[in-house]
Amino acid sequence: MCEGGIHQQRTRGPIPIIVCCKTEHVAAGVIQSLKPEYDVVHYILDVENASREIFGILSGDAPPSAPNNRHHYLGNKLYGTGEALRPRAVLFGGTYDDGAVERICEDLLLLLRQLRTRTRPIAAATTTATTQIPLLKANQSAAMPPLGPEYGRKIVQRAKACLQKLEEEGKFDGTHGGVYIY
User: Fold this and answer.
1) Exposure of 18 by Cβ count < 10 A (0-12 exposed, 13-18 middle, 19+ buried)?
2) pLDDT of the chain along its 182 residues, tens only?
3) Are 43 and 74 in contact (CB under 8 A)?
4) Residue 91 phi/psi, 5° resolution?
5) How far is it, in rounded angstroms, from Cα 91 to Cα 43?
6) CB-CB contact of 93 with 22 (8 Å)
7) Which domains, from first to last, does the chain contain?
8) Residues 39, 149, 20, 182: what is their CA dihedral angle, to the nearest 10 degrees?
9) CA 172 to CA 54: how far, in whole Å?
10) What is the rounded CA–CA span in Å between residue 146 and residue 149?
């Protein structure tokens, strides 16, 4: 569980993350409010494709972009295998319930197992997919305002506190996974 505490000032550039949110207008505000400390690489709206998109991004691949996806403008779209580009966390909005996050987590583990059991050599571009990544999930039992601008501000406040704590604990190094409640 991520809880508030004293946080040191960052001296490096923004930390790349992935944001999953079922509501585009809330996601746009959240993405903007996470700056300057965090830079959203990619925004995921669709629960059904979330695990494949996250896995692809961790592999350094750009997810397929459907022409009818209005949310294509959200996120910086800087995909790659370099350390500076690797997302350090996945932030799930409050509309992603426990079941959805559990399914995504299980799907990601299955995809990683499939990658590791390939008989042919893994291409250099996919080796980063074997890293682990913290998954941050909103506390469903915490009191929240109705969906809208105030909701987004509250989510960002809690999410930033959790992200800062994970950074301070060194959990963005690719060796720490798991679900963290914010």
Assistant:
1) buried
2) 565 443 444 447 899 999 999 888 888 999 999 999 999 999 998 888 898 899 888 888 887 764 445 556 789 888 887 788 889 999 999 888 899 999 999 988 888 777 666 544 444 333 444 568 999 999 989 888 887 778 888 889 999 999 999 999 999 988 888 899 99
3) yes
4) -105, 115
5) 10
6) yes
7) 15-181 (3.40.50)
8) 90
9) 16
10) 9
pTM, two decimal places: 0.83
Instruction: Convert 44-62 into a string of H (helix), E (strand) and C (coil).
Output: ECCHHHHHHHHHHHHCCCC
For residue 47, which of 182, 159, 137 has the smallest C-alpha distance?
137
Contact between 42 and 18 under an 8 Å Cβ cutoff? The reply is yes
The rounded distance, in Å, linking the Cα atoms of 137 and 159 is 9
Contacts of 56 (CB under 8 A, 6+ apart): 62, 63
